[in-house]
């Protein structure tokens, strides 16, 4: 019976092959979600080994960040863009959890991230959440949490204003677009805690900065940042 099920699974995979969302190659036996070639050869940043990396530099003189990180470099038309498109717009939530696991494995090598108490996803406005059905940053947080032995707190930081798209805005316009957009519902929960703020892609850092400004109003809070990708 087990052999028969194996043959049936192979037959179905011939008719309806699972494709890697990054490169569109057919997945073979023992490959899960992303093909082996992409898992090894996507453009990793290795920012977990570089305290003074490009993402960290974006927050210098703006908010006090203990450490900042992105898993991949994002380039237009590249495999990471394909991956993120399937993750955000094709309902493939499992991509975020998998990439959270990958990122968490890297971050375990950095002692700063090993002291994280709570992982907080950048929130979507309730109207956008209803439309999409899930918050991609929460999926990423769910993959990170077991690796960092931290708790996901996804109902504390809230987006209270539905903002216009950030695409094609300057850095200043992006920041102005995010002013007074976020609030903390339970600030006492985060007092004297190390919070890891997570998002899918960081470009100018305006959204993360706006969230960080609110979080750093909490007494004793330490802030670090992690994203799936950094858009060059």
UniProtKB/TrEMBL annotation:
Signal peptide: none annotated. It holds the Pfam family Pribosyltran. It comes from the Bacteria. Residues 175-228 form the Phosphoribosyltransferase domain. InterPro entries: ComF/GntX_DNA_util-trans, PRTase-like, PRTase_dom. Gene3D superfamilies: 3.40.50.2020. Belongs to the ComF/GntX family. PANTHER family: DNA UTILIZATION PROTEIN YHGH (PTHR47505). This is ComF family protein. It comes from Mucilaginibacter pocheonensis.
